[in-house]
Every structure is written in C-alpha cells, then in structure tokens.
Amino acid sequence: MTPDHPTSVETKLEVRDLHVWFDKRHAVRGISLDVADRKTVALIGATGSGRSAVLRALNRLHDLDPSARVEGSVKIDGAEVLGSTTDVPALRRRMGMIFGEPATLPMTAYENVIFGLRAKGVTDERTLDGASERALRQVMLWDSLQKQLHENALSLPLDWQQRICIARALAVGPEVLLFDDPAAKLDPVASQQLDDVIFRLRRDFTILIATNDLHQAARLSDLTFYMVNGEIAESGETLAIFNRPTDSRTEDFLAGRAWS
Fold it and tell me: Which contacts (CB < 8 Å, 24+ apart) does range 20-27 have?
C-alpha cells in the first residue's frame, strides 16, 4: 500500500465481519459498514460498546497490544488494511487518528505539527513552514498561535494542544480522519470550538468519530451507527436515527434511559 492519493471512488472505507478480542473479551463482534468518500460517520454507544476498538482496528493500533486479536477485512479504496504486507506507517499517514487525551509531543508546537513530515524525510524549511501554516489554518489556530509557535506545546492550553494534534495529522496529507472522543478532556466552550473545526474538515475528508456527545454526533455526522456490546444495533442517516429510531434500544439510549 502506498500513501499516494488514489483516483476518486464512491466508497472510501469498507469494513466486513470485523472482530476484535482482548484476550478472551470479544470487544467487536462481526460488524460491517461502508463509508463513502468525504462523508462523516458517528459511532455512538455506551463506554465499552466497541466504538474505540473499531477505530483502532482501522488504524492498526491493535498491533501494539499483545492481548489484542483482529479478524475480518478493512479496505481503503479497495486495498486491504489488515494484511501482513500493508505499509502501516503509510496507512497511518492516510488515516490520521486523534484521541481524547491530546497526544502532544514534548517539543515546540511547530515541531509537533511537522513531526510526520520530518519522519518522512522532508527537510526543506520552506516546505515545512508552508505545511505547518496550512495545517494550523485548517484547525483555526494559526492567528492565535503563530507568535507562540516555537514554545513548548505542553505549556499551551489543552484545547490548543488538541488542535495541534489534528494539525499534525493534516500536515502529512491524510484522506481519512479518525476521532476517538476528541472533546473528552475539553470544557464546553473548547468543545464547541473543536466541533467547528471538525465541521469545516468534513468538506475535504472522510471522517469517523466515536463520541459520547450526542449533540456532537447529531451536528457533525451524515450517518450514525449505534453500537451495543460490540455489535451495530442500528445504523442509518443521522437525522433518521435521532428523530425516528427503529430499534427500541436506540430510542432508549438517545432518551437517556439506557447506557448499554
């Protein structure tokens, strides 16, 4: 698999019969889903429903956990993600992942943003400067941050750190963005600002977002998948799921009457 952008296709991601185990715990139980190019999908459900495990499988992060086992098929533009010959670093450049806890590196904000480009071997300073500015503009942070660009990123506000992490993913030219409860550590104001960033990114990227925030899911996504105990209980267009759920479990969850 190469990091080059492919020709346009209707379906960006295909997941078929995906299973994830952690030792004997069956966390994801044979789910299948399709995500069209430049569409946003929300995965909702209680903690432990398997939402995060699905995103980590797409990004091959379970490779790092000796207790994890993944079976099934995940394809991006028709190319298998889970195969032994997959170029995993290239895959992760194509599918950037953002976590609930900002994965800020102990270096300047600038070096955080261009970290992936340096890892690819990019050394031209004008190229790095341009990529940094573009990515920070995409996350609506350039005007606020440019005077502090060479300060330690860990000294910056937590919401800025989260947007710097998104900018780091953007700088290497991804096609898919995976958000795992990205506002989990943010206050309501910062969470709203992050939603504004993701709302703008929807125009240019395929996005999957696992979230506990139902307002976030309703505002940002085109499609919603409600997960229960590692399975998809209901899926469909977001407006239909939120306004006319067909499964009583979905209705109870959206109404706050059930948390599993």
Answer: 20/50, 20/53, 20/54, 20/56, 20/57, 20/62, 20/68, 20/69, 20/70, 20/230, 21/68, 21/69, 21/70, 22/65, 22/67, 22/68, 23/67, 26/230, 27/53, 27/230
